[in-house]
Amino acid sequence: MLDWLRQPFGVPTWTILGLVVLSLAVGAVIPMFGDSMGYQFGRLAALPALLLLGVLLIYDYKKLVMLILLFRSVGDMVLESTQFGIGSVRMGIGGLINLFVIIIACMMVMEKPREFPGKLARYWLPFLVMMSVGLVLSYEKTNALKMYLGMLSNFAIFIIAIYMVRSNDDFNKAIRLVLYSSLLPTLYALVDIALHMRDGSFRLQSTFSHPNVLAFYLTLVLVLGLYMLKSPLYNITPRARVAVCLYMPVLMLQLLLTQTRSAWLACFLVFVLYALLFKRSYLLYLFLLPLLLFVPAVNERLMDLGQGNEVMRNAQLNSFAWRVLLWESAIGWMETSRLLLGYGLDGFGYHVATFFPADRTVRWDAHNVYVQFLFEMGIVGVLCYLWLYARVLGTLRTLARIDPVSGFLMLAIVIQYLIVSFSDNMFRYLVFNWYLWFAVGGACALVNLHASNKATTARTGAARHRAARSGLPGNHEGKV
How do the domains of the chain map onto residue ranges? Predict the structure, then answer.
């Protein structure tokens, strides 16, 4: 009887008591939580979602992170409704998911500390240090902390990818995971088109928070689709090849409907450079591009750049001229003493109403990563940011020596990101950044594994050579 009391049903008594206490605590909190959330379904879902994430984290955190990556592409439209305010702080399930991703990265490191990619992690160190300095200098700590944690979650995804990719097959699984994540947004795009497409001003955004985020996400998926079709590192089956070949035009059509010109340009450059380097017959498809000018939405977006370029009173600027005016206003307003370290994270949004004459009613970001980081973290911050990408590009260049096609496509992913960063707030697009760094982290892991295998082979060969020369038994060259 005493033994049964110590372990009823084979479960320790303290475990059962802990679950009972936890259940009572949750039961006591739920009514108060419901009152504070106004009994709105989206907000009420935050608590059970947190509990579910916690259970999955304990059960199998590796599967949890894969589920997060698989479904995060449809998260924006759902997670926005779960946000609630505590004072001036906005919280929601999205922030909790970010936190769980960081926790999972820490768990992977603690589980296998010897496999921590110290060399690759050091790429991030200067930039994360400068982000910390920017957090200290910030005028608004809440927004600055969100920005810092968002960037930290990108680093966590990078580390997670490296821990998950232990072979070429693992890397291909990671690529497929990103491709599979686009299926639900593609299906919902049909709903978005049916509900909202009325004229040439329609911009497809599907499950994402803004058409630009969808556009850059689609450019990434298209490049990964090209990797699956053309890279010798990916052994694609005939049936999968047909599926990807049919799917890519659907993705291109979605990209066209986003009306994001910088994404069009980035995607165009990748495919043209691929054709020039590897398959020049593909250049024949360029003759079809002028036909796009007959599409009203495309024609209007391109023609818009030809007008509204002059800054005049009551003049309507086009989007590019507006951006240039914003950048000039910000840099011209900066004090010389702030050029080194900037005004702190989120400093651009804090001061924009002061220095931007065109519109003082909206809290704008710079629509240029380099201008924003110059303003917020100074010259040192921009140099640290460029250092990160320079080192990543150097690593991916090594992949090009292993396989030119794979190396080119992975390099193209990063380079097109750097290009579109000149005209958009790329660091704010958390979902896209996660998929980008997951693919890039996996590619860097592949380079590390190849280097490690090469070093192991070299050591083994050297050992056999020494054994042969010394005449040790066990080697056929040393036998009499």
Answer: 121-286+336-458
pLDDT, tens only, 57-106: 677 788 888 989 998 898 877 766 555 554 444 556 777 788 889 999 99
Residue ranges of the chain with pLDDT lower than 50? Answer: 1-2, 4-5, 32-33, 36-37, 39-42, 86-89, 306-315, 474-480
Distance, CA of 282 to CA of 303 (rounded, Å): 27
Which pLDDT does position 310 carry in this prediction? 46
Residue 109 is encoded by which pair of tokens?
């490191």
**Closest of 293, 376, 316 to residue 340, by C-alpha:** 376
pLDDT at residue 443, rounded to an integer: 95
Question: What is the bridge-based pairing of β-strands 84-86 and 89-91?
Answer: antiparallel
pLDDT of residue 292: 65
Alpha-carbon span 277 to 222, nearest angstrom: 18
Token digits of residue 356: 């931007």
Round to whole Å and give the CA distance between 435 and 374.
Answer: 25
393-397 long-range contacts, CB within 8 A, separation 24+: 395/120, 395/443, 395/444, 395/447, 396/440, 396/443, 396/444, 396/447
- As a whole number of Å, the CA-based R_g of the chain is 26
Q: Check: CB of residue 252 under 8 Å from CB of residue 295.
A: no
pLDDT score recorded for residue 306: 47
Contact status, residue 205 vs residue 214, Cβ threshold 8 Å: yes
- The per-residue pLDDT for 31 is 54
Q: How far is C-alpha 36 from the geometric centre of its chain's CA atoms? A: 33
Q: What whole-number distance in Å separates Cα of residue 76 and Cα of residue 255?
A: 18
